[in-house]
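Q: Given only this backbone (301 positions), what sequence would you predict?
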């Protein structure tokens, strides 16, 4: 049986929290943040388990929604694009599902990350512990749900799209790992900013929705490339948007080529490597940003 949150956090409390008049150097704060995450693995595991248990008990179907919800979203887009707009795309349901599943993980990670610190207001005021574990745990909790959502994907491929089955499906965890690296720094920043500006959650919902529609998720990347010919600003977006690489990689290994006739192929290895390296740099910056603001959390909350 899981212990109460205050007791679990208290058991992970550092033996010494020393104050100093000297402002810590950036490298020191980043190293301290990484050390806190590594030393609080048991606390992070508890928070992840508690989050999964809470979400599973809040609804009748529990975690089964990670199977049902993406299937329902897929149905909506299939009806909208294939039936109403009458734009044929071979095996369009599989194309959409291969994008909805990772995006649902990203969207829930950012949404939960935003509320991760303010949601623990009472505990933060009572106990001194590294708050960095809160948004990290919120992001990690989505991993289990993401892989749980791969079950209907496997069923779809086995029953309806056996020609799409390939060994490239085994590279899904690699693409997911890069997505995790990309998500963490965003979650850390929005979690810290939300402590001071509670409008972050409302703004994020609209930004995320817009970002999904202008990323090649429910359509292939060649559609966005054609649009960039008429709207030059999209060319910059194509280069800077990590979801162009991620969605294309998921499409490649699950769906295949943009024409819907090319069999599944390798993910965008080069793009994934760039996204991973940039994400690591941003993660260091996000940890620094979070650690700079962390001492004021208890006062503001």
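A: Predicted residues:
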């Amino acid at each position: 049986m899981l212990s109460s949150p205050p007791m679990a956090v208290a058991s992970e409390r550092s033996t010494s929290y020393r104050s100093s008049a000297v402002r810590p150097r950036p490298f020191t704060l980043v190293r301290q943040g990484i050390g806190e995450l590594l030393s609080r693995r048991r606390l992070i595991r508890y928070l992840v388990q508690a989050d999964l248990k809470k979400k599973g008990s809040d609804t009748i179907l529990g975690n089964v929604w990670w199977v049902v919800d993406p299937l329902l979203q897929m149905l909506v887009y299939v009806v909208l694009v294939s039936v109403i707009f009458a734009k044929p795309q071979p095996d369009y349901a599989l194309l959409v599902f291969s994008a909805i599943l990772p995006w649902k993980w990203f969207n829930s990670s950012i949404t939960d990350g935003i509320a991760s610190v303010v949601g623990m207001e009472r505990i933060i005021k009572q106990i001194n512990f590294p708050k960095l574990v809160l948004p990290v745990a919120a992001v990690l909790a989505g991993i289990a749900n993401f892989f749980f959502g791969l079950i209907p994907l496997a069923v779809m491929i086995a029953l309806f799209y056996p020609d799409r089955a390939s060994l490239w499906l085994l590279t899904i965890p690699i693409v997911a790992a890069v997505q995790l690296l990309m998500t963490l720094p965003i979650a850390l920043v929005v979690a810290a900013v939300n402590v001071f500006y509670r409008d972050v959650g409302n703004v994020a919902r609209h930004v995320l929705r817009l970002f999904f529609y202008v990323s090649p998720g429910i359509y292939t990347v060649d559609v966005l490339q054609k649009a960039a010919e008429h709207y030059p600003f999209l060319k910059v977006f194509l280069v800077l948007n990590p979801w162009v690489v991620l969605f294309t990689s998921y499409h490649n290994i699950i769906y295949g080529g943009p024409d819907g006739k090319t069999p599944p192929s390798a993910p965008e290895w080069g793009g994934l490597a760039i996204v991973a390296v940039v994400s690591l740099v941003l993660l260091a910056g996000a940890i620094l940003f979070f650690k700079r603001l962390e001492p004021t959390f208890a006062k503001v909350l």
